[in-house]
Amino acid sequence: TMSAFLRELVLTLRKQCAFNTPINVEPMVQAPILRLLEVLYDQINSAGGQTFKLLIPQDRRLKLIFEHLTQTPALDFSLVKWGERVGASERTLSRLFVREFGSSFVLWRQHLRLIYSLSLLATDLSIQNVAHQIGYQNDSSYIKAFKERFGMTPQRFRLGDHGI
């Protein structure tokens, strides 16, 4: 998690380091960079981290589904289709999801996709592309689901306003 201050500090250091190679750094330039690095170190140490619980199944059949969806989150197979692939009935899989997670398959898959999207938000991909890559047909559905889960929009998360 980065506060707005920490983000600006990192960007400032990045700019200064880009203009000054280690060989050519003069003592007059080096001192401010070292002070910024010390502040950066302090900020990183005091920053509160965020953790998001990813529900990983114990059952071998559910693990197979998990492995496929973590590789390709946009897969939109029904429980019937997953059952055919992992050797279980739709009803059995449905019961397993409720037993292991207290949730339906659809809600578990949504959670997995939203967690996966967090790393994509750190890239230059548009919100629409992030939504598409994790299996949403449109960005408004993704934004709504994201906001319900994390209490903020993906754009606000991307900008570093992590009041989660």
How would you characterize this protein structure?
The protein is mainly α. The chain has two domains: 4-46, no CATH class; 60-158, Homeodomain-like (Arc Repressor Mutant, subunit A), CATH 1.10.10.60. The chain has nine helices and no strands. The radius of gyration is 21 Å and the shape is elongated. It starts with a helix and ends in a 6-residue tail after the last helix. The relative contact order is 0.10. The model has no long low-confidence stretch (mean pLDDT 82).
Q: What is the CATH architecture annotation of the largest domain?
A: Orthogonal Bundle
Strand content: under 5%
**Main pleated-sheet profile:** none
- Measured as a percent range, the helix fraction is 55-70%
Q: Any idea what the shape is?
A: elongated
> Tally the helices: what do you get?
9
Radius of gyration from CA coordinates: 21 Å
Kindly name the structural category: mainly alpha
State the domain count.
Answer: 2
| CATH topology tier name of the largest domain | Arc Repressor Mutant, subunit A
Order of helices and strands: HHHHHHHHH
Number of strands: 0
What would CATH call the homologous superfamily of the largest domain?
Homeodomain-like
- The averaged pLDDT comes out at 82
Please give the alpha-carbon distance between the first and last residues.
10 Å
CATH class of the largest domain: Mainly Alpha
Brief sketch in words of this structure:
This protein has 164 residues and is mainly α.
